Amino acid sequence: MYKVFYVLILAFMSTLSWGHGGVANDGNQCKLSVGPYMMNFSGYQPENNVSKQFCDDMPGVGKSIIVLDFIDNKLRDMTVNFRVLKTDSAAQGNADDGVINEAELAQKPFFEIPAKHYPTGSMTISQDFKEEGHFIGYVIVEGENEKFISRFPFSVGLPPAGIPEVLKIPIVAFIIIILIMVWFSRKKSAVPNEKETDD
User: Is residue 24 within 8 Å of 56, Cβ to Cβ?
Assistant: First the structure.
């Protein structure tokens, strides 16, 4: 029985840092990994909610702004290409989300920011999403004798898959409370048995 609770707790805890492909939540920050390099990923939709920041899935349609801040300074010397493809498939929520698909990459993008250098270490992407749906983002960085690609599926204007963020912590807390209650009830029932054996 304890094993079941431990598995549930671990499953819920892992969803707290869940992301799609190369994008993942790291504490209070959203990070995009491209090969050995890291970028901070920040998304905003000023028309919908000025203060709310999203990590990968966009809460609504409309003008969307994505800011990539380079954590690794070497990225400033490399070209960065950002492209987005439309797809019918939702993110799977597992390692397959990050698998690079060459046939997919060869398709005509929904929109693209051509490869260029960003010496300031910051890249801002602005796009007006007029309809909801599923998309795949690709970030391609290239330098001298090296090239790395990051893939991350995301949705626009669709309800998030899985457990809503606001419910994750209460559910984990509830499971821990139940586990403690079961542990105490077993401990209490074991005490009389020990006294009987002493007699």
Answer: no
Dihedral angle of Cα 117, 119, 120, 122, to the nearest 10 degrees? 30
Please report which helix (H) or strand (E) contains residue 156, including its range: strand 146-156
Mean pLDDT over 121-131 rounds to: 94
- Identify the bridge partners of residue 63 per DSSP, sorted by sequence position: 128
Q: Domain locations in the chain?
A: 20-160
Q: Higher confidence at residue 159 or residue 8?
A: 159
Tell me how far apart the alpha carbons of residues 74 and 37 are, in angstroms, rounded to a whole number.
Answer: 8
Cα within 13 Å of Cα(25), Cβ side:
15
Three-state secondary structure call for residue 98: helix
What's the N-to-C CA distance of the chain in angstroms?
Answer: 31
Percent of the chain whose pLDDT exceeds 70: 75
What CA–CA distance (Å, rounded) separates 128 from 65?
9
Which CATH number is associated with domain 20-160?
A: 2.60.40
CA atoms within a 13 Å half-sphere pointing along the CA-CB vector of 187: 6
Q: Give the C-alpha separation, 80 to 154, whole Å.
A: 20
pLDDT tens by residue, 28-60: 678 999 999 999 999 888 887 655 677 778 888
